[in-house]
Amino acid sequence: MCEDNHGGPGRRALFVTGAAAALTLGGVTFASAAGGGRDDAGQESRTVRGTLPPGSPDFVYVPVEVPAGVREIKVAYAYDRPSVPPGTTGNALDIGVFDDRGTELGGRGFRGWSGGARTEFFIRADDATPGYIPGPVRPGTWHIALGPYTVAPQGMSYEITVTLTYGEPGETARPVYPPERARGRGRAWYRGDCHLHSWYSDGRRTPAEIGALARAAGLDFINSSEHNTHAAHAHWADVAGDDLLVMLGEEITTRNGHVLALGTDPGTFVDWRYRARDNRFGRFARRIRHAGGLVVPAHPHATCVGCNWKFGFGEADAVEVWNGPYTPDDEVALADWDSMLVASVRDGRDGRDWLPAMGSSDAHRDPDTVGSPQTVVLADDLTRRAVQEGLRAGRSYVAESARVGLSFRASGGRGEHAGIGGRLRVARDTPVTVRLEVTGAPRCTVRFVTDQGVLHTSAPLPVSGSGVVEWRTTASYAAYVRAELRHEAAAGPLPGALAAFTNPVFLGGQ
């Protein structure tokens, strides 16, 4: 590690413990509030340069000594991107900032994070760059947080310029958040997309644009899920309406996987600065639940660096099995989730600890399609709590669009019946009829999947896209049944891409 600090002491780096590996560099200092280092615009700048080697800590902190009388802090940064051999990761450097309250794990001093989406940001009392939290620029030691996501074999040379503007601060507006209720239809099936990114993290759409796309996609609810920041929470109130419930959350983007905080209290921030080996995730899963949210690991088998889920599923309320356009990693996630269903009915556990599946678009920008896929949940009303309860109970299915509709149930011989996420309580040898009604899926094939695997495959549905498929079994033969709706396969033995799938109906358990 080398460092060239223009205007501040060139101290050696100091290791810090307590979270994922971190490093604190020598500080950047400015003139006092009465100092003469300012230009005619009342600004003062300092630049720090350095080089990070391969294998650098997950987080590198650059202290900035902020004097009194500062109206705005602005940070700009750049780093080199040397060419690397095929199969070798190049340089990628994320950035954020913590204020005078410090960098302690938990985020009390958190003031914003833009990852690698921006090359500069500012904060002042009345405004801030998207992804950052407006508020006073108090005197004290602030910390620029660098996240060397990947470092090339040649190392990573960086340059950071900090500019302070002095003057009277503006006023911080009181945040206004979206309501927790929209005009629902009572107990009904509601469609939602719980993984979306706006320009408040690395997306390119405004909340208003996302709201318009959600309505066009036939959605009833969405969830704000920016990477490692809650800065968007106060910018959704004008998007919500009687026809669209907007829940608030975050995508906690760690180096060992991503997890959605779904439907947390407004203003909730959840820290991301830990790995599975640090044994910290349970603390932050509890933080999500304490704030009224659900814990939903996202794209658990994604192939991007740091995206594959490594924390296990013991703390999860649901799992995002289908993320965006259907790809092989979604197929792996589906198979992995099905194995967890089998484990939940093993050893006499009777399926009581099963983990529901979800699907979301993870849309960032054009041409990403909001609402593809979407989770369709049976909820008592269109409220935050009712939607969360339906998701937690697994009363839901996932569809590629609002055109696809499913009705799935299992029935016994005496009028007993159960729907998605429920249990049909019949004797082990009682005949059970499983019935799936489909709309909006031309030429798709229905598959019924049990703890033994695929036990029934239908003929393709007609070009109208509507049809009914039935299958008969018993609880002794199938501990659960779930339905998949598949597009035609292009070639080979692999099934076609999903058009929809349901959570299971469990059988037996009288």
From TrEMBL:
CDD domains: PHP_HisPPase (cd07432). Coiled coil: none annotated. Residues 37-47 have a biased composition (Basic and acidic residues). Residues 34-54 are annotated as: Disordered. It comes from the Bacteria. InterPro entries: PHP_domain (IPR052018), Pol/histidinol_Pase-like (IPR016195). This is Phosphoesterase. It comes from Streptomyces djakartensis.
